[in-house]
Amino acid sequence: MADENTIEAADVAGDIAGEAGETQGRRGRGRGGNRDGGEGRGRGRGNRDDRRGKQEEDDGIIEKLVHINRVSKTVKGGKRFGFAALVVVGDGQGRVGFGHGKAREVPEAITKATAAARKKMIRVPLKEGRTLHHDGNGRFGAGKVTVRSAPPGTGIIAGGPMRAVFESLGVADVVTKSVGTSNPYNMIRATFAALSEQTSPKSVAQRRGKKVADLLGRGGVSAAEAEAEAAAIVE
Description:
With about 240 residues, this protein is of the alpha+beta class.
């Protein structure tokens, strides 16, 4: 289920939508401007209870609102506001996805982004259910990210949009570094590029026609230790 941070972010987004609707209603002329203004404030703040009720009936998917962008278009009667939402979803057990949606109001944009994210969820193999199997690099546009596996107790060393991805994914220990752009869309896409290259020893062994213990037995590790480590690998 979505956590309290997601609820607070949605509340702030609702306030932004209400202020935009009020501004548009005040500057608009005639019936159209007043209608938009009232609708923006009503849906922005009155939608909180509906979202909380919906989250209680959720199917265990974690939803995190990463970014909301507000744009305006100047027309004859005033300004028309639009919103774009970026949402990350995951089940906390190795599946994660992201999506973005555009609409005239914030709640509708979030709904579109959440629906798009649920359709594009990917499976990422996790080591011991808490960290990545190996290091990786991802790049999209001017954004470059590096993800590294970490020992227990490290925590999620990541900031901004990347933290939302790993929290939704269910990773408890990871070290990341982002270089280049701070655009949340490019950072998210670069992070997913790095996660899509993650492989587990089990999948590598199947492709090569070998046993997992054969791959783990290299580097001076005894056969017994390799067998024990291979048996402990779930994914």
